[in-house]
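User: Show me a protein chain along with its predicted structure.
Assistant: Here is one chain, sequence first, then C-alpha cells.
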Amino acid sequence: MSKQPPGTPGRPTSRVSFAAAELPGVESLIHLIQTDPYSLPAAKQLELLTAWERHSAWLESLKLDALGAFSGPDPDIDGAINVGSPSVSDQTQRESDPHAVEDAACDEVAAALHISVGTARHRIAVARDLAHKLPETRRLLRNGLCSYAQAMVVSDECQLLTVEQCARVESTALRRISVQTPQLTRRSVQRVVTAICPPRPADALEEEFARRDVTFVRVNGVMATIYATLPIPDAMALWNAVTSLANRDERPDDPRTMAHRRADALTSMANSVLDDPDLPVMQGKKRLDTQVVISLETLLGANDDAAEIVGFGPIPAHLARRLATESDTWRRLVTDPVTGHLLDYGIKTYRPPTALREYIIARDRTCQFPGCNTAGWRCDLDHVVPWTGTSEGGQTSADNLITLCRRHHRLKTHNRWRVSIHIPDEVGLDGSVETVVRWTSPSGGVYERTRTQLHEPRTPTTEVESKLAAILAA
C-alpha cells in the first residue's frame, strides 16, 4: 500500500474537499489520483469532477509551456506577435530558398503527438499566444479558472491584435470566464475586439464570406451528409437550382418526395460536372474517382465481410459488390484476404493514367508522413532513394515510390528530413507484413508510419476457403 503524502486527509470526502479548495498542483493532484470516485456520495462525485476539470486545465497549461518551448516564439512584427503568420525570418528564408518549409516545427510536433499538421499548427499558435500575448489567459488556465477550449477561443479571436490590444481585451472580456461556456467567452471577447478594432463594413463582409466552406460527414454505414456554409446569395442560388430541377423531374407516378428529388438533382449536377472534359488534370486523370476497397473473398461472394469506401469508411458487402461490379464511376480495389495488401487495381476508370502511378496512389491512399491525411491524388510521387539514372540511384518502382504532399516532399528533399522503407524479416502470426515508412527529423527524432493495409488481415476459415475454391473453379 502506497504511503500517503504529508497533509493528506484520510477520508475520500476530505481528499476531494482539499483538492477542490487548493489551486491545482502536484499535491492536490495526488489527492485526486488516490480518490476512488465510486466510494463517494453523489454530491462529492460532482465536486471531484469539477476538481479534475480544474486540474486538467492546469495540465494543459503545462503542456502548452512545453509546446511553446519546443516551437519557439514568432518574432515581433510592428509591435504585434503575428501568430500563425509568416515571420520575417521565414519570409527571408523563403526568398533565398523557395523550397523552405514554413515553421517546420509543426511537422515534428504532428509526428510526435500523432496528430495532423493543421492541428499541430493551431496548438502551437495557442501556445505562442499564451506565452507572449495573453499572460492573463495563461494565468487563468494555470489556476484552473478557465478551460483549454476557452483559452483557444481567446487566442483565435485575438490573433490579429497587438500585445497592447490583447491586454485591453483580457482586462475587460475575461471577468466572467470562470462561469462561462467557450461560446459565451467567444462572444465576450468578440464584443471587446470589435470595440477596440471596429472593422469597416466591407472588411466585415469579406471576413464573413471567408467562412464559406463545404464539409463531408459520415452519418452511418451507407449515408453521409454534406454541409455547405455559403453567403446568402450563393446559398439561395444553389437552393433554387436544385428545387427547379426537382420540380422539373416531378411525375405523377414518381414515389420520391421533394427532398428525394432535390438530393437526386444535386447528385445529377455533380456527375455532370465530373464529366466535363475541361476539368484540370489531377495525377494524370481528369476525373476524381471513388474507390471501393473489397477483399477478393467478399467480391466473389464467399463471405459478407464489410468493405470500405476510401475517405468514408466501412460499407455493407452487398453494397460494395454492387458498386464494384456495376458502376463505371467507381473503382474497385481488390485485396488479399490474409495480408490486407492490394492485389488488383480495377480498370474501370475515366481516362486512366499509367499503371504504376495508379497503383502507388491506390496503395498509399494518403501522404506517407506520420499524421498527414492529404489524399493520394493530391500528392507527389517521391523516390525514397533518390533517382540518379544510374545503377547507384533508386529505381522508379513500387518498392521505392511513396505518396508525399508538397509540404512533406519539400521537407524531405530540402529540409534535412530523411525517410526510409523498412520491411520486417519475419511475417506476423496472421501472415501479414507490416512495411514501415520511417522518418528522421533534423533534431534526431524518429517517427514511423505503417504502410496502409486496405483491410485488417485475418486467417480464412476452412469453410470460406472451400467456398472460394469452388467459386474460382467455376
